[in-house]
C-alpha cells in the first residue's frame, strides 16, 4: 500500500475539487439555457451570448475553484490517484441534475454512483507513491522521452481531425466528438498541470523554478488546453444531456490521462503486479458505474420513444429542429428540458 501524507493531501484536495466541479456543470448549464432563451442562438451552434449571463459566470468561477484544488492535488499525489477521483464529480452532477434540472436519476443510476465510490476507494487504497522531483528539468526530460512525444503527436493529430472534419459533420449528433476533443486535450493538460504544480511547489519551498523556460512552456500548454476544453465542453453541455456528457467525458478523459501519466511519469514502475491489478480493477468498477449512469439515460430515452405519449413529428420539422433553424422551437425544447439529440433520434425513426 503506497498511501502517504502527500497522497492524503492530494486525496482531500481531489474530493473538494470534485464537489465544486460537479456543481459547476449544473450551474453552467442553467446559464446556457437562460442565454439560449434570451438570444435564440445556442452555444452548441456557435452562440456566445452565455458570456453575458451572470449564472454562467458563477458556474465558471465554481469550476475554477474546483480546478485550482485539482491543480494543487496534482502537486502532491500521482495522476493515477487524483484523476480517477473525478468520478465523484459525476455523482455530484447527476444528483444535482436530478433535483435542479429535473433530469431524472433512476435506481440504476444510484447503483452507478455507488460503484463509482467503491471503485474510487479501491484506487485510493492501492495508489502509488508520488515520485520525488527536485527540479522542473527532471519533468522536462520525462516529457521529451520518445514514448511520450509519440503520444503527444498522436493526440494533436486526432484533435485536428475531430475539430476540422468530424465536428462540422456530426458534432451535434454524436456526443463522442466534442467530448473526445475535451478528453484528448485534457490528458495533455493534466501532464502540464502536474509539471507546473510541481514547479510552483518547489518554488514555494525555496527552489526557484521560474527561472527555467520549461516552467513557462508548461504554463502556456496549460492555458491552451484549458481554453480548448472549455470551448468544446460548453458545446457538449449545451447540445447533449448533462447526465450523458459527464460520464462519457470522465471515462475518456480519465483513461487518456492515466495512459499519459503512466507513459510520462512511469507511475507503475515501482509497484507490484498485484497493486497495479487492483488499481485497474478499481478503475474498471468506476468505468462500469459511469457507463451504468449513461445506460440509465439511454433506457429512459428509448422508453419514451416506445410510448405513445408524443405526437409524430414531420421530417421537415425535425430537420429544422436538428439544424437549429427554428428559434422558438429550440426555446420550447430548452424549457421542457428535452435534449436536442432526442429529437434527432425521433427523426431517424420516422425515416
TrEMBL record:
Signal sequence span per UniProt? none
The UniProt entry's coiled-coil ranges are none
Q: Does the keyword Acyltransferase apply?
A: no
* Transmembrane regions listed in the UniProt entry: 6-27, 55-76, 82-101, 108-128, 148-168, 175-196, 216-233, 240-263, 275-293
Entries under InterPro entries matching the protein: EmrE-like, Mg_trans_NIPA
Which keywords does UniProt give here?
A: Cell membrane, Endosome, Ion transport, Magnesium, Membrane, Transmembrane, Transmembrane helix, Transport
Q: Name one GO cellular component term.
A: early endosome
Q: Where in the cell is it found?
A: Cell membrane; Early endosome
GO BP terms: magnesium ion transport
Q: Does Membrane appear among the keywords? A: yes
How does the entry describe its membrane topology?
A: Multi-pass membrane protein
- Give an example GO molecular function: magnesium ion transmembrane transporter activity
Give the function comment from the record: Acts as a Mg(2+) transporter. Can also transport other divalent cations such as Fe(2+), Sr(2+), Ba(2+), Mn(2+) and Co(2+) but to a much less extent than Mg(2+).
Quaternary arrangement and interactors, per the entry?
A: Homodimer.
Matching entries from PANTHER family are given as:
MAGNESIUM TRANSPORTER-RELATED (PTHR12570:SF19), PTHR12570
- Similarity-based family: Belongs to the NIPA (TC 2.A.7) family.
Q: What is this protein called?
A: Probable magnesium transporter
The organism named in the record is Prunus persica (Peach)
